[in-house]
Write a structure and sequence with these properties.
InterPro entries: ConA-like_dom_sf (IPR013320), Glyco_hydro_7_sf (IPR037019). The protein is built from four helices and 21 strands. It is mainly beta. It folds into two domains: 286 residues, Glycoside hydrolase, family 7, domain (1,4-Beta-D-Glucan Cellobiohydrolase I, Chain A), CATH 2.70.100; 56 residues, no CATH class. The chain is globular, with a radius of gyration of 21 Å.
Length: 388
């Protein structure tokens, strides 16, 4: 890893030189910013380079956050809260991570920031699984790209930034498959598949992405005129379903379904199918991919923001929070264990049709956590679901 131990202006100059050599940055924009005086990444503009996720530079041996607290991060997997690590991250109660511009974290199996070994990472196998989290964008709007996504790390070489990062746009020089479970701000949300074919390179990786899905105004955005009001926290999930027609059948395929929900409002979308590029990610999902939590900015994110914003854009830098992350097997009849239970209330799961949740609901989907308070006033929160 590179480490800047000089004043920030020298660090910025060094990053600019590296970025210009790589040819990926807009020279009119700030090329890098310092995060906690130890992390750095190059920013770029335009639709193609904007879809890349700039790598960060930091000390290889960081085991604790800047506050000196072990960065434990818990993920609920089929009802059990398992402890992993996000080196350098700001984490509250082990289940909420707050991050801002130029923050970038990898989900680790062990308390280490040695990114050279695959066994150090928590490898997530998305086939047959649903990834869920609660999102609070906190006003991160135009020009902000708040995201968490999957890549086939680690790369074989350290790359330009020394962290063994790779993605579908070959940011930092290393190329590998990338699945953007989301790229979002208060105005836009997009899910994109970036597959690569052997041998992985700029010529064999799909930097633009195919397929992709977008959430549109009226479905998603700031204000009560949208189904999902991004001024408030909401839940988001990505589910990968394997559709098996027969052994070795060319009609076997993947379906990716995403849902955003808030209160009793749900927006669901899907992509994939027979002969769809999504199927090229099948083996990568099965092998396991690394979860990256990332936040970056650009003066031109119009490919993401659409008509809601106009270049040049200036990201507010408001920090976002992900909390209560869950990874649930699609065939698991157990509901999310996050249905709250507090003093003075009786909480249990109920189907959205007001019936009880049970195994028979597996094909029907969404359930809600209903709490009857001491005053006998029902209070229902959409905070989980059964298997589809």
């Amino acid at each position: 890893m590179f480490r800047c131990l000089v004043v920030s202006s020298v660090c910025l100059a060094y990053a600019r030189e590296a970025c210009e050599q790589n040819g990926s940055c807009n020279i009119q924009e700030p090329v890098s910013m310092l995060q906690a005086a130890s992390k750095m990444k190059a920013n770029c503009t335009g639709s193609k380079c904007g879809r890349g996720h700039p790598a960060w530079m930091g000390p290889i041996s960081v085991l604790q956050s800047d506050e000196g607290v072990v960065p434990e991060f818990q993920v609920q997997e089929d009802g059990t809260w398992n402890t992993y690590f996000l080196p350098g991250a700001s984490i509250t109660d082990k289940r909420a991570v707050t991050y801002g511009i130029n923050d970038k974290y990898y989900l680790m199996k062990y308390n280490t920031a040695d990114y050279s070994k695959a066994d150090n990472f928590k490898m997530i196998q998305l086939n047959g699984k649903t990834l869920i989290t609660e999102v609070n964008l906190n006003g991160a709007g135009c020009g902000c790209n708040v995201n968490f996504f999957m890549v086939s790390m680690p790369a074989a070489s350290p790359g330009q930034y020394g962290d063994y990062y790779c993605d579908g746009n070959c940011v930092g020089g290393n190329c590998c498959p990338e699945f953007d479970t989301n790229e979002m701000n208060t105005n836009a949300l997009q899910v994109t598949n970036h597959n690569c074919w052997n041998p992985w390179s700029k010529n064999t990786c799909d930097g633009n992405g195919d397929p992709e899905m977008k959430f549109y105004p009226g479905e998603y955005g700031p204000g009560g005129n949208n189904a999902i009001d991004t001024n408030k926290p909401f839940f988001f999930s990505v589910q990968v379903r394997e559709v098996i027609v027969g052994d070795g059948s060319p009609d076997n395929h993947l379906i990716v379904e995403t849902r955003a929900w808030q209160g009793d409002k749900v927006v669901a979308k899907s992509m994939g199918g027979v002969n769809n590029p999504m199927n090229g990610m099948w083996g990568n999902f099965a092998n396991g991919m690394v979860l990256v939590i990332d936040y970056w900015q650009s003066q031109d994110l119009t490919w993401l923001d659409g008509s809601a914003c106009h270049a040049p854009e200036y990201c507010s830098g408001n920090k976002a929070t992900l909390s209560n992350m869950q990874l649930i097997s699609n065939d698991n009849p157990q509901l999310s264990a996050s249905c709250p239970s507090s003093e003075g209330s009786d909480c249990s799961w109920a189907h959205q049709g007001n019936g009880a949740c049970n195994n028979d609901d597996a094909s029907e989907g969404w359930c809600r956590c209903c709490c009857t308070e001491t005053a006998l006033v029902p209070r229902c929160l959409w905070s989980g679901y059964s298997a589809f």
